[in-house]
Amino acid sequence: MNTAIIVAAGSGKRFGSDTPKQFHPILGKPVVIHTLQRFEDCDLVKRIILVLDKNETDSFSKTTKQFGIRKIDSIVSGGESRAESVRKGFEAIKEDFRGVVAVHDGARPLVSTQEISETIQTAQESGAACLVANVTDTIKEVSGGVITKTVDRTNLRRALTPQCFRYEL
Question: What's the first-to-final CA gap in the chain, in angstroms?
Answer without folding.
Answer: 16
